[in-house]
Predict the structure.
Amino acid sequence: MKNICVYCSSSNLIDPVFFQAAKQLAVTIASKQHRLVFGVGCVGLMGELARTMHDFGGHVTGVIPHRLNVPGICYENCDELIVTKDMRKRKHKMDEVSDGFIALPGGFGTLEEISEMITGKQLGFHNKPLVFLNTNNFYSPLIDFFEQMYAYNFAKPESRSLYFVSDKPEACIEYIEKFIPEEISEKYERKV
């Protein structure tokens, strides 16, 4: 059993294809008897994930800062609710309790969260699996941008191993289940 953290949108205004992907991901997590860790939103993909997890007998852990812990924003049926002082503590707690991380499509918050996890892994602060669920090619421009960073030497090409990209929820969960941490090469070359 793994605690799988999912970063995603809290908007209800997005295309139904993204809601379907969130639902498929939640069904896969629950059917494999893993647990969901998420940001407690009751709307958008966050709400879809949590409701579907419970529809299929799954366990939901929510982590939210005190200021956002208000009715109408929070999914109120979490099996476990962790309230933190602020957003930084929220992210730290989500990192601490999770065994793997998936970025469903989302906005600036989702991008910031998964980017911070990639950076942390690159610097050796953790060695957990990181996944982009590339529904409807949502993340393809970002992955292309990563390729540009490699081409211009802003990041080492071996950084491709820091994350996994798939458009299939089942493949994302399988990657996390079978993940074997590899030694991460030093980001900085030390001068002697």
